Amino acid sequence: MRMIIEVEASALAAERHNKQDERKLFDVLNRFKNSMLDKESVGSEADYEFHLTLIKASKNPFLEQTFMNIRTVLENSLQFSLSKNIGKPRKRKEVYHEHLKIYEAFCARDIEATKKYMKEHLTNVKIKLETRYK
Question: Does the pTM exceed 0.90?
Answer without folding.
Answer: yes
